[in-house]
Amino acid sequence: MTQVFRCFCLGIFLSLALPATAQVGHPAKGSWTGFYGPNDSDQNRFRLLLNWADQEITGVINPGRKAISLDKVELDYSTWTMTLEAKMPLDGGTAHFVVTGKLENLGSWTNRLYSGSYTLGSESGEFWLSLN
């Protein structure tokens, strides 16, 4: 009887423990917060919300009432370089916003980074985001 009980307990333990070892999600998925700007003194804060569904990354910049949907997302898995494109409001119109950077510290939940360069119309500079 005790051996049956032990096997039963082991089965319950494994059924609870094994799903915990499964992959949580795509490394780019989540809420990212950071800054972009042409120089250190002129920085703009922005938020990026990325989702992974049906083998595709989608997302929005600055989620909320004035959210801007991403038009295109490309990820080179060999280098973990990701490029995002969107139409951003600028001076009463819109400008093409292109962000290209590298995902770093992929194994970390507390220090994952996405940084690189951007262009917004004729402006260019560097950006960095950290996973919240």
What does this structure look like?
- With 132 residues, the chain is mainly beta.
- The protein has a single domain, classed as Lipocalin, CATH 2.40.128.
- It has one helix and nine strands; from the N terminus they run αβββββββββ.
- A nine-stranded antiparallel beta sheet has the order 4-3-2-1-9-8-7-6-5, with no helix packed on it.
- β5 (72-76) and β6 (81-90) form a beta hairpin.
- The radius of gyration is 20 Å and the shape is elongated.
- Residues 18-23 have low confidence and may be disordered.
Helices and strands in order:
Layout (H helix, E strand, L loop, with lengths): L1 H16 L12 E10 L2 E12 L2 E6 L6 E2 L2 E5 L4 E10 L2 E12 L8 E8 L2 E9 L1
Antiparallel strand pairs: 1-2, 1-9, 2-3, 3-4, 5-6, 6-7, 7-8, 8-9
Quick overview of this protein structure:
With 132 residues, the protein is mainly beta. The protein contains 1 helix and 9 strands.
Number of H- or I-type helical stretches: 1
H and E string? HEEEEEEEEE
* CATH level-3 fold name: Lipocalin
Largest sheet: 9 strands, antiparallel
Count all strands and give the number.
9
By CATH, the architecture is named Beta Barrel
Silhouette:
elongated
> Can you tell me the CATH class?
Mainly Beta
Proportion of strand residues: over 45%
Total of domains: 1
Distance between the termini: 49 Å
Strand order of the largest sheet: 4-3-2-1-9-8-7-6-5
Mean pLDDT: 88
Rg: 20 Å
Structural class: mainly beta
Parts with pLDDT < 50 across at least 5 consecutive residues: 18-23
Helix content: 10-25%
